[in-house]
From TrEMBL, chains A, B:
This is Amine oxidase. Belongs to the flavin monoamine oxidase family. Substrate binds at F384. One of its GO terms (molecular function) is monoamine oxidase activity.
Length: 498, 498
């Protein structure tokens, strides 16, 4: 099936919108008439991992659940497109056994042996190419690359003589040490200013490229504390970051994983769903009678509870009644800063499989790695750009091709580009969450607050792997449990049976 | 409530059996008559974390479930006793956010801020005391301790120039690299023999004490591959091991965590339970009519499916019909090797809070740390012995007190001992699972196999954090899902409602 989302470019066909995905759901609905099928126990708005998890948990627990999704597919900001027998990850990709919620699901769905490594240094060029200006490259071994980044990241994170362990001992309880607030309020730029004299030019370029790869933002608007949070979640080491952030992916692509949640929920017989159904308003002012969700096309759905998984940067497009609390509104209006551009390039040099590169700050794609070999024998490179030097990859393909080429001039010709422009996606308005300075300390609690019959859940305000697939599952799990506790576990049925 | 399990000794009262625990369930049953309450959808045998997880998942999913437990309490090999306002962990203790299944439950039950660090080096003696003979001690800083163990463990694990990453890239898929089989078949002693010339005396003593702490066995009967598996799960580093294995515990004790599962299951109204009810036989030869479980006291219970969570070393005490498969029987007969002795000592020296020690090989307790400060202002030391120099702590308290004293001669007087003798416990017959050489490659698949209507689940044969609380939850989750898929998700009810 082909989604309307995503773009592909080849020299032969040029730029085309829409790529195939296992995540597309067809037909887009299994309900005919809202009067006949409702009222629902729960409506879940959004079919990303958070919504899928909540939907799965609620249907398994016996609740009649309606899933409303704006797109034609499941997965939200994580989905894959299988093109010519090769899976391209359009958004969230990597997982690791140190990510508790996603790994719990991976073992539960018996996919622990369905993962592949991104890095493969067993053949080909086997080097790291650092470009700090458009006229030259420095080549290093991957061991030297690791040492460069390890050294730079240790300087960056070492605010307490213990690489953050003292100021952030419990990353899920971020302000356990109240002093941590000051790091949350500090920007990347401010932290770099504190350590700039300790950094070599190569360390500084690599460090900035790496931390901007994490935030997708700019040095001035990315929170240093949020990076420290990723760092603590990863075990306070560079190797932990590499392992958790960019090492292991699903052999068949993310959408194969998302479908497991979907199929389990469908299999209960308790799931109603409507895809291609963006929501206009969520009204909860009927005195306990339920929450009414109205779609853009005017259809109305009513349920006892709503789980709203709409991302932070999109929340302000929905009308809520009664009005949301101030903390939520101010966070929604500020938005998170991640304007990452992720571009896949299939290139005609098989030896690039073992290549990694940083081109910063001059290039519009700053970090890339050899991520696979396509069935045609070409190398698949995955390339990242950030808001610090932003590109809209669909607007001028020549400029996108130039940015890919600048990563390793003369090393390859591009046979294919595949990407999703998350910044222009009206249902995402950016990539994974990354905090502005002070945003987490100021707004996290407020974002996690329920609002009458509406439970808000999204990786954007998870406690652990916030921004990750793991955080989405954490939040979907939380939301389902809130509803489960409130609506009971179908006590009346039980009593009838016991 | 006081459990029959566990021992306490004080100078005033001497040795007494049975200590208080939040995990005791009273009254011990909520069913009156098997004819009236049965038949059950599922019987879960065993109320440790594996059984509790399966029970919780199954009752939430709508199944009428009966939990049978031999003891008077939940928690199995993980439970805590709160004595004079201080929790002593009688078995499994430590958790970390890199342990996926247990951490998923910790966040789900909102206990992410209910943890405390074991180590506290902020005051007191603040040193590591290494004793390789009974006549002298070497004192080191904790930094030097870390460097000693890091160096030794890197030599021990570095079979591939990559500290195990190459031979064990996917620890949940242990024989992904078939060559790994040879490490699984290798004993600790054989591996030490390979590297003995690279190890200093202090490295070798510390290393042996540390790896025996992990296995609870002897150098000759502990599998090197199983240690590499722990190492890989921990991120292939010494620091990762310390973080995951011995750093964070529940402020209120394990039993406070176990109760969350219990209360959720009870709250569904679908749970029947009988404590103090050891099982005698499990019979599944009635041609699809169900599985019959008979208790030692002759009571019979029938269910469509049985989830059997009895530990490996106890399985052979149960009569199964039809007979179990050869692979299971041979693993049951061999048993795992962990004969760990864990002894808590409350000592009258508050400065020991920041002490750690290894006394090996001469002493019957080889590894200990300052683990807390009791309300009386004393230091709580947690001390471990292994089968390599075994002690039965309840048999001769003077000998136990001597072994505690030998850890740091002259440094303290013992005010209290608290322990559970897992080796003599008829429902455990050892502590956490640790593999003999070749046992995992030979028996793991067989141990995980179902047997007709009986699903076998236990941390002893988990794929990930095997032997850990995490592995127990992994297995309980798996078992519940198997049953859920087979018995359906109560389709008939659903259709009636939709």
């Amino acid at each position: 099936m082909t989604s309307r989302d995503g773009y592909q470019w080849t020299p032969e066909s040029g730029l085309t919108q829409g790529v195939p995905s296992l995540g597309v759901i067809s037909p887009p609905t299994n309900i005919r008439d809202t009067d006949k099928d409702g009222p629902w126990d729960v409506i879940v708005i959004g079919g990303g991992y958070c919504g899928l998890t909540a939907t799965r948990d609620l249907t398994v627990a016996g609740f009649k659940t309606l899933l409303l999704e704006a797109r034609d597919r499941i997965g939200g900001r994580s989905w894959s497109s299988n093109i010519d027998g090769y899976p391209y990850e359009m958004g969230g990709t990597w997982v690791h056994w140190h990510q508790s919620h996603v790994w719990r699901e991976i073992t539960r769905y018996k996919m622990h042996n369905a993962l592949s490594p991104s890095f493969n240094f067993s053949r080909g060029v086997n080097h790291f190419q650092l470009r700090t200006n458009p006229t030259s490259s420095t080549y290093m071994t991957h061991e030297a690359e690791d040492e460069l980044l390890r050294s730079a990241l240790h300087k960056f994170t070492n605010v307490d003589g213990a690489n953050g362990r003292t100021v952030l001992p419990f990353p899920h309880d971020m302000f356990h040490v109240p002093e941590f607030r000051k790091y949350d309020e500090m920007s990347y730029a401010e932290r770099i200013e504190q350590i700039k004299d300790e950094l070599s030019l190569n360390e500084r370029s690599s460090l900035e490229a790496f931390i901007l790869l994490c935030s997708g933002g700019r040095m001035e608007n990315s929170s240093f504390g949020e990076f420290l949070h990723w760092w603590a979640m990863s075990g306070y080491t560079y190797q932990g970051c590499m392992d958790c952030l960019i090492s292991y992916k699903f052999t068949e692509g993310q959408s194969a994983f998302a479908r497991r949640f979907w199929e389990e929920a469908v299999g209960t017989g308790r799931l109603g769903y409507v895809f291609e159904c963006p929501v206009r308003s969520v009204v909860d002012d009927e005195g306990g009678k339920g929450v009414r969700v109205t779609a853009r096309d005017g259809r109305e759905f009513v349920a006892k509870r709503v789980v709203c998984t709409i991302p932070l940067n999109v929340l302000s497009t929905i009308h809520f009644s009664p009005a949301l609390a101030t903390e939520k509104v101010s966070a929604m209006q500020a938005g998170h800063v991640n304007m990452c551009t992720k571009v896949h390039a299939e290139v005609d040099n098989k030896d690039m499989r073992s290549w990694t590169g940083i081109s910063y700050p001059f290039n519009k794609l700053c970090y890339a790695i050899g991520d696979g070999t396509t069935p045609a024998g070409n190398t698949h490179l995955v390339c990242f750009g950030t808001d610090a030097n932003h590109i809209q990859p669909d607007e001028d393909v020549r400029e996108t091709l130039k940015a890919v080429g600048e990563l390793a001039p003369g090393a390859f010709r591009v046979k294919r580009l595949v990407f999703h422009n998350w910044v222009k996606d009206e249902f995402a308005k950016g990539a994974w969450f990354f905090s502005r300075p002070g945003m987490v300390s100021g707004c996290l609690d407020g974002l996690r607050e329920r609002h009458g019959g509406v439970v808000f859940a999204n990786s954007d305000w998870a406690l652990g792997w916030r921004s990750f697939i793991d955080g989405a599952i954490e939040e979907g799990t939380r939301a389902a449990r809130v509803v489960l506790e409130e609506l009971g576990t179908k006590r009346e049925e039980v009593k009838a049976r016991l």
